[in-house]
């Protein structure tokens, strides 16, 4: 999954920007904390959500940027960029059932994306299909 996320992040760098929804790891008092950015204030500090509590942190204590959750929009951007680069893959999409999007190649069903979930919540078959397309695996 890590490789798949990296390739999608490559095609849509906005995923890794320090803004609303971006997940980070920061260090405070020698303890590492996972957090989600809520916003950046006028002083350049970040209001973050840590275990359902909010606190303000400075960018200097951010150890790692994990990025925001990857959505279908990010995947569609990556697939579009990949198609433009590769020139040989044509992936089409069709509304499937309510809240689903079907990925097809040459009329052949590859996977179904649940529109209510981000990448981490998709079925293994969908993840495998995306890896096959974007990573040639």
Question: How would you characterize this protein structure?
Answer:
Helix content is 27%, strand content 36%. With 137 residues, it is of the alpha+beta class. The protein contains three helices and eight strands. The model has no long low-confidence stretch (mean pLDDT 90). The protein folds into two domains: 21-67, SH3 type barrels, CATH 2.30.30; 72-135, no CATH class. It has a five-stranded antiparallel beta sheet, with no helix packed on it. It has a three-stranded antiparallel beta sheet with strand order 6-7-8, with helices on one face.
In short:
The protein has helices spanning 2-11, 72-86, 124-135; strands at residues 23-28, 31-40, 46-50, 53-57, 62-67, 91-95, 100-105, 108-114.
H-E string: HEEEEEHEEEH
Shape: elongated
Q: Number of DSSP strands?
A: 8
Number of domains: 2
The helical percent reads: 25-40%
State the strand order across the main sheet. Answer: 4-3-2-1-5
Protein structure class: alpha+beta
Overall mean pLDDT stands at: 90
- How far apart the termini lie comes to 12 Å
Counting DSSP H or I runs of 4 or more residues, the number of helices is 3
Q: Compute the gyration radius: what is it?
A: 18 Å
């Amino acid at each position: 999954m890590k490789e798949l996320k990296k390739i999608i992040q490559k095609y849509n760098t906005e995923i890794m920007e320090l803004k609303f929804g971006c997940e980070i790891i920061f260090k405070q008092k020698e303890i590492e904390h996972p957090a989600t950015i809520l916003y950046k204030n006028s002083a350049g500090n970040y209001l973050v959500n840590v275990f359902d509590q909010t606190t303000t942190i400075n960018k200097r204590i951010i150890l790692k940027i994990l990025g925001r959750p990857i959505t279908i929009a990010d995947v569609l951007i990556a697939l579009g960029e990949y198609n433009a680069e590769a020139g040989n893959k044509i992936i089409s999409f069709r509304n499937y059932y309510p809240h689903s999007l079907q990925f097809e190649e040459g009329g052949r069903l590859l996977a179904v994306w649940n529109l209510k979930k981000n990448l981490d919540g998709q079925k293994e078959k969908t993840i495998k299909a995306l890896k096959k397309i974007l990573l040639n695996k």
